[in-house]
Write a structure and sequence with these properties.
The protein is α/β, with parallel strands linked by helices. Helix content is 30%, strand content 24%. The protein folds into two domains: 19-115 and 269-465, Aminopeptidase (3-Layer(aba) Sandwich), CATH 3.40.630.10; 117-252, Aminopeptidase i, Domain 2 (Roll). A hairpin with a 3-residue loop joins strand 2 (81-86) and strand 3.
Length: 466
């Protein structure tokens, strides 16, 4: 028989706040739902290692669920299920609700589908010392040494002079070759290892090995380079000049895998931010609320949300305005009434590197999706600092729908920081707050998340759209 709690213990339970581990509170059926949802997410990760592939996956899934393509000027009515593709590298999937959007606004989830990687330069191919290499230019914030001596796959497109597009995806099948970036052996690495970790590997040393077989002709020079060009020409019909108009990236060749004896965690490339993009997409596909809801899966967040496919491009504002016009609404009123979850990952507390975290305000693994009232660096520089009223509103949504969630900051105040697309959405006069999955080893070639947090993120999006 349990002992009767004291008055102080009862008061402590009533008044105190403590994060809860989702796995501890989930019943058998909920745990099954968590694990089942993770299988679909892992399939997405393996199919979508670049923003183009993620966009294609989203469109394919949307079509399966009866969504059709939207073009500017199309008529819209309540119940319509649409997707809008921007240059094959970002996509907005949306449902038109029954509520008046001038009063109700739009319910928006904005995630990004680009991830740190190694991009191939425009004039990349050369031969040296028995090997052929591609020169590269890394994309996003990476620890360069982590990308050496691991199997890499090449993904991307090559556009020929006549406009024909060739798709390349090599290194994912067990039958495929993989690619490689050299590192220095420890026997000769004394000087290298004595330096700053940020300088262990220089950007210009991230050259990808792509061949080692000389072309069988004694009369030509650069035989290994020619051998690679001959293979590329045979398989894809390209010449070296065609690489000038190509977008090729080296990404880790690992598939997504369960981690731990209990399989509670997932290790994979690209959790940041596909771990939020997939729940955003599936939540819109599964949602049937009265609100007009959008999942924006955008590009270029890792380099500042720039360009024609980043969230700063006017096309996304234009799309929202087109939706308002098609429904006979004043766009300024629609924006003012809209709400957005900027869904990007946050750093999970890592006990192996505890010195850079403040535990009380860090996201803990398996304690649910994490709300970041602000991001930015140090004195909240570059942050959208969400107002208390909107945070309270989202909190009520989660409470009413039994969402396991937590709050978080990105490490100690002066330890560093980071940004998301939140500030760009807020600039449109749309209430916005960050919400995303905690990640261990963020921006590494292989990152780690909890299946419970992925499912919590999905449930949070459903609650927001309900």
């Amino acid at each position: 028989m349990s002992e009767k709690k004291s008055k102080g213990q009862e008061l402590q339970k009533e008044l105190s706040y403590k994060k809860r581990n989702y796995y501890e509170t989930a019943d058998k059926a909920e745990k099954k739902a968590i694990f089942d949802y993770a299988e679909g997410y892992k399939n997405f990760l393996d199919a979508a290692k670049t923003e183009r592939e993620a966009c294609d996956f989203a469109v394919s899934l949307a079509k399966e669920r009866g969504f059709t393509e939207y073009c500017f000027g199309d008529a819209l009515t309540a119940g319509d299920k649409k997707y809008f593709v921007n240059r094959g590298k970002s996509v907005v999937v949306f449902r038109v609700g029954t509520k008046n959007i001038e009063e109700d606004g739009l319910r928006i989830i904005a995630s990004h589908i680009d991830a740190p990687r190694i991009d191939i330069k425009q004039n990349p191919l050369y031969e040296d010392s028995g090997m052929a290499f591609f020169k590269t230019h890394y994309y996003g914030g990476i620890k360069k040494y982590q990308w050496t001596a691991i199997p890499l796959a090449l993904h991307g497109v090559i556009v020929l002079k006549d406009g024909t597009k060739r798709t390349l995806r090599v290194g994912e099948s067990p039958k495929d070759p993989v690619f490689y970036i050299n590192d220095l052996l420890p026997h000769l690495g004394g000087e290298q290892m004595s330096g700053n970790a940020g300088k262990l590997i220089q950007g210009e040393q991230l050259n990808v090995v792509v061949g080692g077989m000389p072309y069988d002709d004694k009369e030509v020079s650069d035989k290994i380079k020619l051998g690679v060009l001959a293979l590329l020409n045979k398989q894809y019909g390209i010449c070296e000049e065609d690489l000038l108009s190509a977008e090729l990236s080296a990404v880790p060749a690992y598939p997504a895998r369960d981690i731990g004896f209990d399989r509670a965690l997932i290790g994979a490339y690209g959790h940041d931010d596909r771990v939020c993009a997939y729940p955003a997409l599936t939540a819109v596909l599964d949602n049937e609320s009265e609100h007009t809801v959008l999942a924006m899966l955008v590009d270029k967040e890792e380099i500042g949300s720039e360009g024609t496919t980043g969230i700063q491009c006017k096309v996304y504002e234009d799309l929202m305005e087109e939706i308002a016009l098609a429904l006979g609404a004043n766009f300024r009123k629609v924006r003012a009434a809209s709400k957005c979850l900027s869904s990007d990952v946050t750093a999970a507390y890592d006990p192996n590197f505890a010195s850079v975290y403040e535990p009380m305000n860090s996201a803990m693994l398996s304690c649910g999706t994490a709300m970041c009232k602000f991001t930015g660096a140090r004195g909240k520089s570059g942050s959208n600092d969400a107002n208390a009223e909107f945070v309270g509103e989202v909190r009520r949504m989660f409470a009413e729908n039994d969402v396991v969630w937590q709050t978080a900051e990105l490490g100690k105040v002066d330890a560093g920081g980071g940004g998301t697309v939140a500030k760009f959405m807020a600039q449109l006069n749309i209430d916005t707050v960050d919400l995303g999955v905690p990640v261990i080893s963020m921006h590494a070639p292989w990152e780690l998340v909890s299946k419970a947090d992925v499912y919590s993120n999905y449930k949070a999006f459903l609650a927001f759209m309900k």
